[in-house]
Each structure stands twice: as structure tokens, then as C-alpha cells.
Amino acid sequence: MTFHGRLRLFFAIIVIVPMLAIAAVLFSLTADSERGKADAAIATGFRVALSLYREGRTAAKDDLRRLAFDDALLRALAAGDRGAAQARLERLVRADRRIVSAALVGAGGERLARAGPKYGIAAASAFLDPKGGEPLGSLAVSVTDARKLARRAAKRTGLEFLVLRDGRPLASTVPGVRAMPEAGDFQVSGRDFRGRRTAVGRAGGNEEQLGVFREAGEVNSAISTKRLVIGSILLAFLVLALATSVFVVRALQGQVGQFLEAARRLAGGRFDQRVPIEGTDEFAQLGREFNNMSHQLEANIREVEGKRRELEETIRQIGKAMTTGLDPQASFELTVQTAVRACEADAGRALPLDLRVLREARAGSSESALLAALEQAERAAVEIRPETGRELLDPSPTGDRRRNARGPVRAERNGVHALALSLQARLGTRAPALVGVVSLARRERAFTPREAELLEYLGGQAAISIENAALHETVQQQAITDELTGLSNRREMRGALDRELERRRRFETPLAYVSLDIDDFKRVNDTYGHPQGDEVLVQVARVIREHTREIDDPGRDGGEEFGVVLPGTDREGAADVAERMREAIESLRVPRLEGDESLRVTASFGVAAVPASATDKDSLLAAADAALLRAKRAGKNRVECAPDLR
Question: CA-CA-CA-CA torsion for 610, 615, 620, 626, nearest 10 degrees?
Fold first, then answer.
């Protein structure tokens, strides 16, 4: 193809491609605009229907109050006579023409009685609690007919409505429409609709939903019309642009030759030869820009070469880290040193959370302002909240160890920017756990996303190195688990307590310990034998595990005694956990190994916490044991808390 032909093709491309892009954008905006209008009308219709729904619920409160205090109904419920409750409820509904339907639900959620047709919705509900006793259940009363509500809403808005209960249709203003998606377009019997479906309330144990929709034909017709107009305008503009391009190609063909030659020299890497400049017209300016570009390209190439050398050095350091995989401390130190250099940080450090595995490592400046920013970012990176669990400790689903579940955390303090990453690693056969935090700080400039990714990658390499170093300890780590219950044994639980006390010392978070003992366990062994006693221990351990978080460390302290280490939990929170465990154990039914009967067991609990009840490990364990002893002496099957320090 000739140069003349290439220019024509070039101008055609720079005109046609943007025009196609503009057409696509305008077509999309047109469709979005029309659908937006339809969705706005649907949203308005939904608000109208929701208002009618709420009015119906408010109107039902008076009737609910009258039925809720009906003595005959309450007596039938208290006696557990469902038949009498059903009969009385039907009589009350028939006596009040306002009521469409009513339903009684037991305290456990079971359906006790129902009266009236299925079309009653927007029910008001209340608990039946006679004179402060245990709740007998709940009563739901509806004065709103789903069919009437749909018709009223349709009359007000000009839209169509669908009422459902637990996904089953109650009423529809369009025959045949019995279901619809939560939002968007759908088709029924060859007709296209667009609408929205949302849950609006629960009554009698059932979820009620309102659907608002309209015919999609009008929307599609408007979209097609506007697209036709836009397409015609763009086509006319395209023809004009192509005609103009032919004229421009002919005018520029002779003058572009020298710039083509200059571009060839640049492509060949000859930056020392400049484009000759004559006059002051636009081509002269273009020549100057060519020369400037040549100079900038030469400078950029030198900069890229320097970056390449830095990258090679970083890769070499990472390779060195991989070769030192059996020395976790060396990887820990190398990670922070490499991160400081690669991210151009003023300071960095790596703090361990388990002093048995790692030691602190630092790089760069030790100025107090930098250290303060580092500490702020580190606290945010390892913060433990009550809801903390798998989202922090579990590896990513893809197994990519460069990606921490929480990711790098940013902080800023007095003009100093910091970046911190918590490190997780699988130590032997244990579940992934936090082992440390790597942080960087510098003045003036915030860390870029690329630098955050680099820190995350380096942290992942350090975690892999730590895991490799722990592989040879797998057999020893298996010895930390109690063989019968699967919980941590006494040694591991004490080690976990040491680690959490160190974490508390660094980050000033609360820490609690719960000690528990199965009541009268010796009698179980003496009466039913040690295999039956082992089954009791297994079942109690299962309950303990079910009522603890991933970050907690439950363990068997020996015999029928257990303990639970609760990081980030104060004394009151630990007491709540212990009470839930106590109730679960009390309701536990342990099957007999011989026969069809089952055993009931209870347990006593002692709760202590740092700093409320103790200052160190020994005083914490002593306070929890003392509280457990008080629970035993007070009648067993109870929770006692250690008193405040004086």
C-alpha cells in the first residue's frame, strides 16, 4: 500500500473508530435513560404500595390488641389445646368483619392456629405474654386483603402489582404473572415486563413480598426510536468526516514525508539526529515537538535502564529469600530491608506476634515520628474485633499466598504516611494464623497501589519461608493436640496463653481465660465405665469448640477439666461465652454406649481476665481456678467471675 493510501486509511480509522465508540456510548446511554425512567416510575409505584401496606399494618393494631388480650384464647394456649385455640381464633375473626385473617405461632416457631382466607397480608403481630410469664407464642392479625391492595395500588399508579408470601403468589393485577425476579426484565406468556420485587415484612412466620412491574414494550420502542435518530446523525457526520479526510490527506502528503523519515530514525534508536525546522507554521512546531520527544525518549530510556537494574537487584534479593527458606528470621529481616529499598521508605520494621518463631527486625531511620506512624498502621493491621474470624485468618480461596485476607492497611499521622501488612502462615499442621506484621513509613508522599502490591508480595514470600521452616516440626506439633477430644492439650493451651499475653502487652487489648470442669464426672466413670466417660468428654469438647471463634484456643487441661483462651475479650464478654457453653452442656444428651438411654451432664465455670482480674499468666490462671472453685461450692452448674483487682 502506498503512503498516500496509508494516510487515507489512517484518517478513516481515527474517524470511524471514535464514531463507533460514540454510537455505542450514546446507544447505551439512551437505553439506560429510558430504563431509568421506567425504574423511577416503578420505584414510585413501590413506595405507594409500601405506604398502603404500612397503613394496613397500622390499621390492624387495634384488632391485634383486642385479640391478644382475649382470655379464652390465652387459656387455650396456656393449656396447649390447639383445637380450642383454633376454634376460638376462628370465632374471633368471624366476629370482626375488619379482620381478613389471623395466625398463632408457638414460641418455637411452629404454626398453632390460623383463621381467615390466605389473602390477608400486612399483619400486625405481638407476643402473647400473660402476666409476665413465659411467652406462649405470637399472634398476627391482618385487616388487608392482598387482592384489594394490588388493585388500589394499580389504580393510583397505573402500574401492575404482584403480592407473594414465601414466594407463592397471593394476588396479581395481570393474569398469568405468578413470579418475577428481584429486579430487571422478565417474560410471561410471550409478553415482556420490567419490574422490581422486594420483601416488605414478616408475619406469622412468613415473608411477604411486593412486586411492581410494567409492560416493557413502550420502553423498547422509545429506545429504538432514539437510536434511529442518533444513528442517522452520526452517519451523516461520518460521511462528512470521510470527505474532509480525503482533502486533508492530499494537502499533507508532501509535507509528512520528512516527519516519516524522522520517525524511522527514532524507531532505529538514533536520537542524536534532529528534524530540520523551517519557518514558524504548524509543521515547524511539530518538528520542534519531534525533537523534544527524541530528547525525552533518550532520558526515559536511561531512567528505564536504571529501574531495570533496581528490579534485577530486587529479584536477586527475593531469590536469596527463597534460598533461606529454612531460616525464618533471615527471611523476616530480608523482607523489611527489601521493602524499604523498593518502596523508597524512610523506615520499616517487622514485628513478630509469636516470639518463639521470630524476633523483631528494623531498617531505615528510628525517628519517633516515623515509629509513631508505624505503630498506628501496625495496630490497624492486627486489630482483633469480636467478629474477627476466617476473613482474617483463612488463606484466599485460590491459595495465592501473596494476597492477605485483609490486605495492606494505610495510616497517616502528622504528615507521615505508613503502610502495614499482617502476615499469616500455616505453622506445621495448625490452621493459618497471624505470625507478624511488616510496616513501612515515609514523609510527605503516600504509598501507591503498586507499592502496596509489592509489600503484599514480599510479605507472602516471607510467610512461605516461615511455613517451610515449620514443616520439619509437623510431628512435634501433632503432639500439642489432645488425642481424645481434638482440642489443644495443656502444654499448647498454656503456650497460646503466653502468646496472647505478649500480644496484649504490645497492643493493649483485653484477654480472658475460662476454666471449666464437668460436674460429678467420677460418678459417670464409676457407674457406666471409662468408655462412656470418654464419650462424655468428646461431646463436651464438641460443645466448647462450637461456642468459640477461630481465634480462640480451647483445650483440655487434664481429666475432666478444660480451658479456653479468649483474645480481644474482656471479663464480661467471656462470662457471656461461658454462660452459653454452660447452657449448651446442660441441654446436651450423651447417648449411652449400651442401651437406648442418654446421660445428662453439667459443668461449672470460672472466668478471669487481664487487666480486670489479673496482671500475668499465673495470677490469671489462679483467678480463674478460684472462680471455678466458688462455682463448685455454690451448687455447681454455674458461672463465676473473678473479682476486680484491689
Answer: -110
Residue-wise pLDDT for 511-569, tens only, equals: 999 999 999 999 999 999 999 999 999 999 999 999 999 999 999 999 999 999 999 99
What's the CA gap between 405 and 391, in Å, rounded? 6
Q: How many other CB atoms are there within 10 angstroms of residue 127's CB atom?
A: 12
Task: Tell me the three state secondary structure of residue 243.
Answer: helix
The grid cell for 357 is 518463631
What CA–CA distance (Å, rounded) separates 75 from 136?
A: 10
pTM listed for this prediction: 0.37
Catalytic residues, which ones? 560
Q: What is the pLDDT of residues 170-184, one digit of tens each?
A: 999 999 899 999 888
Question: What whole-number distance in Å separates Cα of residue 497 and Cα of residue 620?
Answer: 10
Residues 59-98: b if buried by 16+ CB within 10 A, e if exposed: ebeebbeebbebeebbebbeeeebebbbbbbeebbeeeee
Domain boundaries of the chain, sorted by first residue: 58-145, 272-323, 326-475, 479-641
Burial class (CB within 10 angstroms; exposed 0-12, middle 13-18, buried 19+) of 457: middle
Domain over 479-641 is classified CATH 3.30.70.270: yes
487 in Cβ contact with 453 (< 8 Å): no
Domain 326-475 carries which CATH code? 3.30.450.40
In whole angstroms, what is the distance from residue 436 CA to residue 381 CA?
Answer: 10
The helix/strand/coil state of 1 is coil
